[in-house]
Specification:
By secondary structure, the protein is α/β, with parallel strands linked by helices. The longest helix has 48 residues, at 273-320. Strand 26, helix 39 and strand 27 (1068-1074) form a beta-alpha-beta unit. The strands form 7 sheets. Strands 13-16-12-17-20-9-21 form a 7-stranded parallel sheet. Strands 22, 23, 24, 25, 26, 27 and 28 form a 7-stranded mixed sheet that branches. Strands 3-2-6-7-1-8 form a 6-stranded parallel sheet, sandwiched between helices. 48% of the residues lie in helices and 11% in strands. The chain is built from 39 helices and 28 strands. Helix 7 packs across helix 13 and helix 14 (325-338) runs parallel beside helix 16 (364-374).
Length: 1086
């Protein structure tokens, strides 16, 4: 008999108390998706809330798809059970696909689409993806930068700022950060006016400097080492006095601020040397203070100016309805704040709101949910003051897994909402991990995660459900003892190398020793395979060491998730080629691509070319035939031809051409990690293609400039990793990428890394208000140092939660690295060791074997030898010719109206007069290529009942709506007359009284391998079982021309008959129905 779950009562409440607002703390592996499914089933099947009125907001698209799939299975099961809920389940299945189940951004887009007028948006909303947003930002920054340089009022702040270290690249980064949080700019930056920037007064500085310089007379020894520093100060003071402007003076003052008031011997001075040093220190401090004030004033003025432009850009995106992801959230919140009608409508439409992974989503989410749940009366400025009706909200999350601060996720918001919304319920039973792993997790993180007001939740222990297995330790510790032989400073690479060697060794041991895992499909025990093992790292610093150790140990692996794609050698070579072609004057790019594996030119080749008088440009030629035929000359001829071809190519086409021509696929195949190189090349070409789709009119130079920003050292991009079912390899990924996943064996590596100090431009939003900005080590606003410690503390607390997320990914075995030095900065390993990770829950220390265990033999697939080249090449040419032919031909439409038909050397066969197109268009245009009037008539006949009377108001409404859609205002009587003639015709009335289908797609395979396809306006089954094809025609033709028009349409109708006959095997005949607005329609058999 199975023991009851420790949290059974909580799970019962989650499922049954649908009239209560619950805030569910769901621990790792506690089955929160199952809890969500159970609650939705209860709402739909027993509380009779239609699924279309239930909104479920998930953190990722994958989570939303999983929830939708599991609901589908549950509803289908309910239909089959026959327990009285069948009708509700069937209705839910009908509602499931369009149901509001998805990410927060998708939900916000839905809200705006439902109320575009109230949101001040055009009806058609376009949402830019990551690449589209990046391209749009570059366009905006180009305009902002030009405006900044042209703005006379900003000359002083900009010039003074650049004099004290501000750069345009830093301002670009600041503009990007401001755009990411543009909803905060009005309140945090623009509310308080900023004083105008003035040139600093250097009077006090000069006076203090002159006092110090007078002390030089007190030096009795010209070789004293303090004296040169005073000489430097004298020279700097003279430069300041002679400076033509304040900017030049500030640039000199920066040198003064770097003077070190040290050295000097007492015996060489007639006054105390310490006093001289102190006086010099006063001067340096004064220079530093002046620079700090100027930097603060300039930064605040520049930030204010940029904030105004960023807000204007956001308003432009709203007016143009080209929105970025963050725009969706802000505009949806503004909609709910400002429109009682929208709140009322959304309150009625979304009667239940379920929020999943609440700890990792934007704080705006809670305000959206509260205002929708409360409805029209939710007009309080602060969401805390809005009462939420019981049962309207259901929130699920785990504060211990809040690890997305960089995406605006706020642990403080979670803890605050838990206090204000409903009653807290905890799911603590873990169905994922075995008992030893949970014992270790509870012991270690019970010590490591301690409650901090507004920053850290209290630790809630996980209850065990799974039992122990038979072979292999539950928790293994690497490097349990401190490394005493490493210095407290330095030695980081050696520590990482030792850790990586242990990781490779324990992976080998687990595979050779046959650690048992539970198969995720069969649920049976079996020996572990490489693809059961995931090595999780907090950052990619240790990745090169892991790769070297795995390669040396013969361990197959693949690195997943985000990576420095643009830093890979093959990608750098490919982009260097693009730069050289885009800008023939870029000799650096040209030399780089010549020396790369694309052309293989050595330094000796380049020297011989230059020595012979050759120039380094694409158009260089030499009379020396040997050199011209050599590597450099061959490369120049190729690049020259490519530069001409590039004028008619998209960037993605050029990159794909270079990859194919220079055999980059084949070259990568001969190297280690070939799969990774192939994936990166595919990714770069695909991203270039996506760039072209959003960068209207952008050429190769614009793409290269955009790609250079992607190649910044700190920019990591998520590769589109295609499934590799045949890759039985250990997976290496970041902990963030592993969120939401689980693995039989988890190895925590990279634990030697210190707390990362943020680099580059930083923008902080302190809890008490305002903002703090830092552009570089020396350039920051005056209050940044006060705000930074709070932010760093939140980072340190999140680091502990990140380790918890990593450890709870393990199902059967957990391996933890504790490699650390005796002294030194805090690392993840030192944190875990101090929390008792080395001895908790009978953790087993790993002792690397003296000799590495041989990896188990893996079956080698039999590879057939390649064919002869001529045979292979004939197959390639045949495939190319086949791919050049259209794969499908459409029968719908008039004969000869397609350009490919008009321009064809020979007429096409009957019934294939039209190329396939527009199959993805909305219903009112799909398959209709005639006039707007014809499209409107077809659309109305598609939606109205065929037995409608001439006075049916539904027909009039459909006609009016379609005329608006087609821009036919004033043409309603004409469209109404044509529709009426069709509905009144005996042929349509006969179809209405029988089984019939409208706008029916048909297709069949032709002898040449192409698909013949089309949309039939109307098909009905006649009394003799014959299928009758009816095609509406709105041609305005005289009766005498009817016969010739029938002949013209005959190929199209014969194609319909052919397709339908092939699909059904029935007898098929076709009739054309010519419509007229004032007389009866004419039916003509074909």
């Amino acid at each position: 008999m199975t023991a009851p779950l420790a949290d059974a009562s909580a799970r019962q409440r989650v499922c049954t108390e649908t009239g209560s607002t619950l805030f569910v703390n769901a621990g790792a592996g506690s089955g929160k998706t199952s809890a969500l499914v159970d609650r939705v089933l209860r709402l739909v099947l027993h509380d009779h809330v239609p699924l279309r009125h239930v909104a479920a907001v998930t953190f990722t698209d994958k989570a939303g798809a999983e929830l939708r799939d599991r609901l589908r299975v549950a509803f289908e099961r309910a239909v089959m059970q026959g327990d009285g809920t069948e009708e509700a389940a069937r209705e839910a299945l009908d509602d499931l696909d369009p149901a509001p189940i998805g990410t927060l951004h998708a939900f916000a887009q839905r809200l705006l689409s439902e109320h575009p007028i109230e949101a001040r948006l055009p009806p058609q909303i376009e949402v830019l993806d990551e690449i589209g947003s990046a391209v749009a930002f570059e366009d905006r920054w180009s305009g902002i930068r030009g405006e900044l340089l042209d703005d006379e009022t900003m000359a002083q702040p900009l010039l003074l700022g650049m004099a004290v270290g501000v750069t345009l690249d830093q301002l670009r980064s600041l503009a990007l950060l401001l755009g990411n949080d543009w909803d905060l700019l009005e309140e945090r930056i623009l509310r308080a006016p900023v004083e105008e920037v003035a040139a600093p007064d250097l009077t006090d500085f000069r006076r203090k400097a002159e006092v110090v310089l007078d002390l030089r007379e007190q030096c009795r020894n010209d070789s004293d080492k303090l004296l040169p520093k005073l000489g430097d100060l004298a020279a700097q003071l003279a430069q300041i006095e002679a400076a033509p402007d304040a900017e030049t003076a500030l640039m000199v003052l920066r040198e003064t601020s770097e003077l070190k008031p040290t050295l000097g011997q007492a015996k060489n001075w007639s006054v105390p040397v310490a006093g001289v040093r102190a006086e010099l220190g006063e001067v340096v401090s004064e220079a530093t203070l002046i620079l700090s004030r100027v930097r603060d004033a300039c930064l605040r003025r520049l930030a204010e100016w940029l904030a105004v432009r960023v807000l204007a850009a956001a308003e432009t995106r709203r007016a143009e309805s080209r929105l970025e992801f963050h725009d969706l959230l802000v505009l949806a919140r503004d909609l709910l704040r400002s429109s009682p009608a929208a709140r009322r409508g959304l309150h009625q439409r979304y009667q239940r709101l379920l929020l999943d992974e609440f700890q990792d989503t934007d704080p705006i989410q809670i305000e959206l949910a509260v205002r929708i749940a409360a409805g029209e009366t939710a007009d309080a400025e602060d969401w805390h003051d809005i009462p939420v009706p019981p049962g309207r909200l259901f929130v699920v999350g785990d504060p211990k897994q809040s690890i997305y601060r960089f995406r605006r996720a706020s642990i403080a918001t979670y803890l605050d909402a838990a206090q204000h919304l409903g009653e807290e319920v905890s799911l603590t039973t873990n169905f994922r991990s075995v008992a030893p792993v949970l014992d270790w997790v509870n012991t270690v993180f019970g010590n490591l995660i301690q409650a901090v007001d507004g920053g850290q939740p209290p630790y809630a222990a996980l209850d065990q459900h799974r039992q122990q297995w038979e072979r292999g330790p539950g928790v293994t510790v690497l490097g349990r003892d401190v490394h005493l032989d490493l210095p407290s400073r330095g030695g980081a690479d050696e520590l990482r190398a030792r850790e990586a060697a242990d990781v490779a060794a324990v992976v080998q041991h687990a595979l050779v020793d046959g650690w048992q895992v539970t198969d995720p499909v069969t649920k049976e025990l079996r020996a572990a395979r490489p693809d059961d093992i995931a090595v999780l790292v907090p950052a990619r610093t240790s990745l090169p060491f892991l790769e070297d150790a795995f390669t040396a140990g013969g361990v197959e692996y693949r690195a997943e998730s985000s990576s420095l794609v643009y830093q890979a050698d093959e990608v750098r070579s490919l982009l260097a080629c693009a730069r050289a072609v885009a800008d023939p004057t870029d000799q650096l790019a040209l030399v780089q691509v010549l020396r790369s594996s694309l052309f293989g030119c050595g330094d000796d080749d380049l020297w011989r070319w230059k020595h012979a008088g050759g120039a380094l440009n694409l158009y260089a030629e030499l009379e020396d035939e040997a050199l011209s035929a050599g590597p450099v000359g061959t490369a120049f001829r190729y690049l020259k031809r490519l530069s001409f071809d590039a004028r008619a190519m998209l960037p993605s086409e050029l990159l794909a051409t270079v990859v194919a021509d220079r055999r980059m696929w084949e070259v990568a195949a001969g190297r280690s990690r070939s799969r990774d190189a192939w994936r990166r090349l595919r990714f770069i070409v695909d991203q270039a293609r996506a760039w072209s789709e959003v960068a209207a009119g952008g050429g190769l130079r614009e793409y290269v400039a955009w790609a250079s920003h992607q190649g910044q050292e700190t920019r990591r991009v998520a590769e589109a990793v295609l499934p590799e079912k045949d890759a039985d390899a250990v997976r290496i990924m970041t902990i963030h990428a592993a969120k939401g996943l689980e693995f039989p064996i988890v190895v925590l590596s990279g634990m030697t890394a210190q707390q990362n100090r943020r680099r580059g431009v930083q923008l902080l939003w302190p809890p008490e208000g305002g903002y703090a900005v830092k552009l570089s080590k020396d350039v920051q606003a005056g209050d940044f140092d006060a705000a930074a410690p709070v932010d760093e503390q939140m980072d340190r607390l999140e680091k502990r939660r990140l380790l918890y997320v990593a450890a709870t990914r393990a199902r059967d075995h957990l391996v933890v690295s504790l490699h650390r030095k005796e002294k030194g900065p805090e690392t993840a390993a030192s944190l875990l060791a101090e929390a008792g990770a080395g001895t908790a829950a009978r953790a087993v220390p790993f002792e690397p074997p003296a000799a590495a265990s041989p990896m188990p033999n893996r079956p080698v697939a039999t590879v057939s030898p390649p064919p002869e080249f001529d045979e292979w090449w004939r197959g390639v040419l045949l495939a190319r010719r086949s791919s050049e032919r259209p794969s499908a031909q459409s029968a719908s439409g008039l004969e000869g109206t397609e350009p490919e038909v008009v321009l064809a050397a020979s007429p096409p066969p009957a019934g294939s007069a039209k190329g396939a197109r527009d199959l993805e268009l909305p219903p009112w245009t799909k398959g209709r290529y005639g006039s707007a009037v014809g499209r409107a008539v077809h659309a109305v006949l598609q939606v109205v009942a065929l037995d409608s009377s001439d006075s049916d108001i539904g027909v009039d409404r459909a006609v009016a709506a379609q005329c608006v859609a087609e821009g036919l205002l004033g043409q309603e009587p004409l469209v109404r007359g044509l529709v009426g003639s069709a509905l009144a015709s005996p042929l349509v009335q006969r179809a209405a009284a029988r089984e019939h289908w409208r706008e029916q797609y048909v297709g069949t395979l032709q002898d040449d391998g192409t698909v013949l396809e089309g949309y039939i306006d109307l098909v009905f089954r006649d009394d003799d079982a014959t299928l009758v094809v009816v095609d509406y025609k709105t041609d305005a033709i005289p009766a005498g021309a009817l016969a010739s028009r029938v002949t013209y349409y005959r190929p199209q109708m014969e194609a319909y008959v052919q397709c339908l006959t092939a699909a059904t095997g029935a007898t098929v005949r076709a009739e054309l129905l010519f419509l007229h607005p004032s007389v009866s329609a004419t039916a003509v058999p074909v």
